[in-house]
């Protein structure tokens, strides 16, 4: 559950220190959480129109909590000598009981601003709307879709698994026209020269080959692909033209009826090109008694699985120049064979505006790029690619970009979003078809930029090899005998990024490669630091839960459970050979029990785990700052002080851990001679007692002592605890 606070505006705020206006922002505090709006400079009636979202840990306690909304001036935008640190513009305190339970029940209310103290001077009011809402993270979840029928049925043999290269995407119809060459073309100029080129026309769409100067037997070898959505005309025209200075001349043409064009699907053999005689507009094949020549063409209707698809000119990009067309084609940059991964890049939706979107997918050393679809917010690529899996514990990355290099622009391709899928989380021979949320983290916060529709299937034909990979080293043998340092790894990563960005043809632009390789992941981010801290906290939550459970057993909170633990303990003490079998049987039972609740969807970007939803705007602004910083000195000073505060708490925790370890070392170091003498004397006594007493007796006595009833317990700390806390540490020796 989330608490949403919509901050609309404030009116008639009081100016401080003789200023004509104020740089106001709103801070909302609830249950130990804080969120703030952006600053509105120099306005006594600022408008924010922002929604701040805070977590509700326990909805049952909401009525007992209070939402504190305060209006404050931004000190970083004012002269520190003129603005006193206690300046305050007003606050509002709203009881949790009055918060609307849904957005439909909430309405905008104006609250008068209250004073903080008796002598405060506050004026004005603020417009707020408070309500409970579903977690924002729900909009970033996966949406499962049904895979195509061939993918559901699956291949029948291992060979067919690899051969069916387009079984997970929707077939898209295309009309292919391959212009190979021409011969015996007539002379058109007075000089007897001919500069021929070919126009391929289908309705309102036209593809043009390059022109060849002074050539009556030209060779083009170009392929044109017209989308099935554009097959509205009844005829296809292939026209040979002569390029001239003022007006291009008509040489001849070939006309095809759409109903006569054959269809072809792989693995059928490619359609062989044929010679066609050129005719004029009236169907005559001769001009002044001379033939108009012949042209070699191949015309067929196919799908995106055709071999000619990647290099063809597409009618979707009809408005681009030949140079700009290179940046729109799909491309496999490295085609490297027992374990395979198939990924179908189907479509995207909700990209916003008219984007020229394309996808880049990377796994290992093989990069692929889909074609660019121009001017659409819902592109449908329906392209499928196959990778050889070299290790299960690897990740495939698919990113979506907006192409800004179509018209020789120097702008960078805009990032739309990225999806990562870890192969080890996929079941074999199952098709995962989902809409993955595309998110962009900006200085203004987390934004959903659309959804990417992917179909993923992991196929294994050699189970022994796949299972054996779990026991093999992750890195080459040389790394373990002569490991590479961290600095060298960063340098090698940078050089690899440079090679990928420059040596591909056509090249992937630098910003694309950097985004795919996460080159800025090592930069400091307070948001990532918080996320990693809570990951560690979650990691140890199981240990804490076991500790609380054992504490409840020792305190007899549930007498029946405590008695059962006594019985199990006595059985294990009497039969110690059952301890390890019991432990591993327990682990087996837990795994079997969790099988029915196993994850059914592949993992995706977790906005809650990343702390991206509730990140402070200034923390995000710091994360996207350049290195070295480009911010004003006041902002840098504030961030430095904040970092010092966080580092101070870390320093305290590290010092406490060091103190506990030093106390353990001082047991035998004679730093405290009396404590060391007591410890070694007790050690000798315990050694003698354990030598003459059977182990089962010692274990039973210690176990029953730890599980004794609270009536026999003291509320004071135990003697060993008090003894340990009095041991010396090196904290007194620090400056």
Overall radius of gyration: 36 Å
- Care to count the β-strands? 30
Given as residue ranges, the uncertain stretches (5+ residues, pLDDT < 50) are 156-163, 334-338
CATH class membership of the largest domain = Mainly Beta
Briefly note the structural class of the backbone.
Answer: alpha+beta
Distance between the termini: 48 Å
What is the overall shape?
extended
Helix content: 25-40%
Please indicate the count of domains: 4
Number of helices, counting only DSSP H or I runs of 4 residues or more: 16
- Please state the average pLDDT score: 82
Which CATH architecture of the largest domain is right?
A: Sandwich
**CATH fold-type name of the largest domain:** Immunoglobulin-like
What do we call the CATH homologous superfamily of the largest domain? C2 domain
Domain C2: 1-111, 156-276, 319-436
Keywords: Membrane, Repeat, Transmembrane, Transmembrane helix
Membrane topology: Multi-pass membrane protein
Protein name: Multiple C2 and transmembrane domain-containing protein 1
Outline:
The protein has 735 residues and is α+β, with helices and mostly antiparallel strands. The protein is built from 16 helices and 30 strands. Residues 156-163 and 334-338 have low confidence and may be disordered.
């Amino acid at each position: 559950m989330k608490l949403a606070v919509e901050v609309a505006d404030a009116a008639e705020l009081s100016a401080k220190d003789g200023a004509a206006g104020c740089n106001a922002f709103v801070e909302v505090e609830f249950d130990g959480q804080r969120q703030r709006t952006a600053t509105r400079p120099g306005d006594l009636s600022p408008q924010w129109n922002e929604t701040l979202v805070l977590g509700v840990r326990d909805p049952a306690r909401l009525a007992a909590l209070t939402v504190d909304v305060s209006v404050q001036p931004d000190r970083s935008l004012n002269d520190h000598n003129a603005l006193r640190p206690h300046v305050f513009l007003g606050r509002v305190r709203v009881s949790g009981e009055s918060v609307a339970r849904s957005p439909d029940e909430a309405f905008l209310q104006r609250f008068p601003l209250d004073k903080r103290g008796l002598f405060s001077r506050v004026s004005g009011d603020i417009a707020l709307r408070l309500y409970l809402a579903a977690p924002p993270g729900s909009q970033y979840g996966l949406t499962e879709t049904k895979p195509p029928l061939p993918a559901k049925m699956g291949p029948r043999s291992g060979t067919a698994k690899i051969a069916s290269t387009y079984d997970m995407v929707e077939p898209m119809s295309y009309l292919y026209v391959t212009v190979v060459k021409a011969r015996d073309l007539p002379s058109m100029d007075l000089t007897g020269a001919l500069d021929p080129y070919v126009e391929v026309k289908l309705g309102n769409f036209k593809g043009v080959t390059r022109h060849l100067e002074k050539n009556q037997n030209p060779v083009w070898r170009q392929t044109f692909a017209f989308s099935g959505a554009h097959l509205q005309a009844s005829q296809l025209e292939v026209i040979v033209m002569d390029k001239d200075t003022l007006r291009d001349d008509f040489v001849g043409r070939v006309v095809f009826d759409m109903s006569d064009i054959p269809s072809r699907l792989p693995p059928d053999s490619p359609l062989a090109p044929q010679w066609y005689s050129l005719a004029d507009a009236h169907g005559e094949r001769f001009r002044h008694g001379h033939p108009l020549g012949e042209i070699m063409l191949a015309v067929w209707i196919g799908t995106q699985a055709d071999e000619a698809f990647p290099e063809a000119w597409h009618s979707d990009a009809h408005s681009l120049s030949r140079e700009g067309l290179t940046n729109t084609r799909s491309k496999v940059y490295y085609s490297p064979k027992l374990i395979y991964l198939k990924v179908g890049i189907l479509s995207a939706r909700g990209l916003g505006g008219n984007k020229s979107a394309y996808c880049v997918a990377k796994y290992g050393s093989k990069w692929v790029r889909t074609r660019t679809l121009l001017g659409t917010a819902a592109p449908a690529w329906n392209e499928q690619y196959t990778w050889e899996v070299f290790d299960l514990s690897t990740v495939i990355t698919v990113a979506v970009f907006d192409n800004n290099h179509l018209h020789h622009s120097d702008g960078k391709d805009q990032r739309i979003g990225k999806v990562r899928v870890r192969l080890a989380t996929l079941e074999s021979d199952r098709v995962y078809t989902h809409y993955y949320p595309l998110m962009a983290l900006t200085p203004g916060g987390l934004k959903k930029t659309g959804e990417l529709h992917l179909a993923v299937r992991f196929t294994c034909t050699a189970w022994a090899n796949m299972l054996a990979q779990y026991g093999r080293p992750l890195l080459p043998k040389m790394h373990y005998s002569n490991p590479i340092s961290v600095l060298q790894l960063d340098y090698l990563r940078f050089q690899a990024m440079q090679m990928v960005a420059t040596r591909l043809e056509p090249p992937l632009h630098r910003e694309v490669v950097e985004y795919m390789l996460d080159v800025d992941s090592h930069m400091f981010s307070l948001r990532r630091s918080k996320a990693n801290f809570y990951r560690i906290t979650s990691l140890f939550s199981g240990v804490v839960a076991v500790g609380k459970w054992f504490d409840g057993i020792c305190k007899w909170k549930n007498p029946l459970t405590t008695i059962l633990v006594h019985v199990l303990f006595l059985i294990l003490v009497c039969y110690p050979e059952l301890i390890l079998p019991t432990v591993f049987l327990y682990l087996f039972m837990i795994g079997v029990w969790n099988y029915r609740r196993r994850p059914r969807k592949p993992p995706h970007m977790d906005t809650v785990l990343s702390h991206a939803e509730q990140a402070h705007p200034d923390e995000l602004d710091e994360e996207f700052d350049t290195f070295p910083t480009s911010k004003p000195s006041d902002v840098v000073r504030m961030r430095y002080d904040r970092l010092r505060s966080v580092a101070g708490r870390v320093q305290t925790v590290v010092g406490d851990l060091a103190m506990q370890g030093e106390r353990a070392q001082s047991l035998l170091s004679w730093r405290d001679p009396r404590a060391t003498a007591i410890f070694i004397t007790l050690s000798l006594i315990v050694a003698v007692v354990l030598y003459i007493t059977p182990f089962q007796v010692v274990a039973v006595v210690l176990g029953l002592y730890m599980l004794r009833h609270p009536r026999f317990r003291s509320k004071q700390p135990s003697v060993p605890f008090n003894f340990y806390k009095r041991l010396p540490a090196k904290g007194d020796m620090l400056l």
